[in-house]
Every structure is written in structure tokens, then in C-alpha cells.
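Comment thread on ticket #2218

A.B. wrote:
> Attaching the input chain for the structure job we discussed in standup.
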Amino acid sequence: MAKWFFIFITFLPTITAQAQWVNTNEPYAGTVNTLAVVGTDLLAGTNGGGIFRSSNDGFTWTAVDSGVTNHFVTAFAVSGSNLLAVGTRGNLYVWINQWVIPGTGVSNPNVTALAISGSNLFAGTTLHGVFLSTDDGYDWTSANTGLPSTNISIYSFLATGTNLFAGTDSGVFLSTNNGTSWFAYNTGLQRFYSIYALALSDTNLFAGTYFYGVYLSTNNGTSWTNTGLYGNKVDAFAVSGTKLIAGTSGGVYLSTNNGTNWTAVDSGLTNTNVTALAIIGANIFAGTGNGVWRRPLSEMITTSVGTSQNNLPTQFNLEQNYPNPFNPTTTISYSLPHESYVRLSIFNTLGQNVRTLVNQFEEAGNKSVSFDAGSLSSGVYFYRLQAGTFSNVKKLLLIK
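C.D. wrote:
> Ran it. Output below, let me know if you need it in another format.
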């Protein structure tokens, strides 16, 4: 007994020192749709809980949505230390001494993206395209000339200089004249690609898609090439110097070489459906299907570089889940030396499949997935990884 006790206390500091993702004093236990930095504060827009603000790196949160009566918050427009507009599922709110619904031009929109370009405010909507305001959000006009249809959906914006990029359900479009006209910039993309996130890192432009991963343009959107993360919905980007972080339906990934290689950096997350990212101070924050999570940015980058993300795994591997025993969530990690169709399943002691965690084509790399066993009873379970001709089984223990 003394020997096992000694091993436990020896390894505990090593686990703690890894500074993995930790749950903040979450404002809302459900899905966080969007994050924004307002001055030195962090805002979180939630899927039914409204808007919350933290001034201390997520240790405490305060509800700040007085006047925003629609609590399904999907987008923010921020200028410096000022929050100018809030998009929700069904309403657009602008700040004119108080939160008000615009006077003319846009009625009951499902707002999915907001952007500020110069003195202009843009709203992207589901099925109604782009709207433009030149008077601080009070009046709006349609700005869809050049877009392929009148019922196009806008999922993301990127304003850089005089350029405004729009990520849509029909690829990427660019306006150089404040939304007066739009032009398709889809060479290398398929027209049916939905673009959920856009980011600029130095002179490199990145587009996050639904299922088809991340695309890179080195010529201002004139042409695009795929950089990986195939099979993921890429909902968010964060840029720190030359480092690019992607928030996806399969977790958080880091690239230090413009998308040539990606490394999973989501250790500690119990919900890897990452819908938003934001960097404030020394920390990066992730909005997920289970609140807001925090991690030191420098630690994440240092750890990733130290693990030689430029080198792919040399063999298939299935790791022991951590923690184990667990209640009710645990993380299962595995390695793929080359692209494979992957199936990761959970079985009970009778051999019955109680959950399938992964069932899709995946690129080579180190992977991790969270398993939430909240609906299962205590006991021994098994998880099996099948990737190509490789198969391995390990045991896990759920204790409630």
C-alpha cells in the first residue's frame, strides 16, 4: 500500500504542471456561441443564457444583457473598448445610448456574423445575406450585389484594410467598396463549401469550412489550398504572432507553420465541440458546448513545439484513457501514422456497443476525443479503436 501511495503523490505534480485547459467559473453550462475581447474584458454570448462579462480571466462572470431580450446570442461587433452591436437568433441590437432594435432596413434577422469596416457596420444573416449601416446601426440597407442568390447565408466576416471578406454557404466573397458589390474568390474551393471562420496571419488568409477542414490563400483569396483538419467543422480561429489556433467540432488544433502541420492541443477539455476562441492577456479562451475554458497561451505553444508537431506518428497507437477511473468524462487519445477511416467505440461487459465516439475518415496525426458517460451506470467498459487494419482494445472504469 505504501508503494502505491508513494507513486500517486510523485506523479500528481507532473499532471498539474501541464496547465491543460481548465473550466472557468463558467457563466453558462451550455453552449457558448461567441467570444469577444472588449478592452481588457472578455464577453461570452451563449445559446440561451444571454451575455456575460468577465474582467478577471474568467474567474467570475456577470450578466450584462439588460435590454437584449433575445438570449440566443450569436455575434458581437466590438470597436476598442466599446460593444456596438449584438446579433441573436431573431434580432439585431445596436447601442444607441441603450440597446435598441434598428429603425429601418432589417427586420427579425437571424444574425450569424457582425463586422466593422471603417465607419461602416455589417451584419451577416441566415438566408438574407448582408446588411450595411452607415449611421452607427440605426438604419440598414441590403448589400448583396454580386452574391449568388438573395437567400444566401453569411457565417463569418474578416475586415482588413479596405477589404471585407465574407464566408458564406457558397464559399468566400470579397468586397473592396464597402459592400456595394461582391466577387467570388473560390478558386481551389468548391462552391458548396460553407465557410464558418476567416482569419489573417501575416499575409496568409485562412478559411475554416464545414467538414473539409482549413484552406489557405497566400494571394489575398485569389486561390486556395487545403491544409488539413479534414472531417472537422472549423468554427473559429485565433492568431498569436505566427501561430494559428483552430477551434473545431473535434477540439482545438495549433499550427506554427501556416497550416502545414496541425497538433491537437485540447488536453483537459471535456467537451471538444469548440465554437469560439479568443485571446486576452496571457490566456486563450475556448467557448464550447459546455461553457468557457481557459489555458495559458505560452504553455500551449511551448508544449506543442516541444512535442515536435512537424513529425507525424510512426505507428498506430491507442493510449489509456485519462483520467481512469473517471466520473463522468474522460479523454481517449490515439495516433494515426497515415490517413485512415477511424472507428472508436465503447462497449459494455456484454460486448454491446453503447457509444460510437468516432466514425469518419481522419488525416494522420495525434488525436483525442472526450467521452461523457453521464447517462451510463457505474462499471467496467471497453473502448476499441479500428483504423485501417489496426485494432486495439483497452479497459476503462466508470465510478459514480
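A.B. wrote:
> Thanks. Noting for the ticket: The chain has two domains: 21-306, 317-398.
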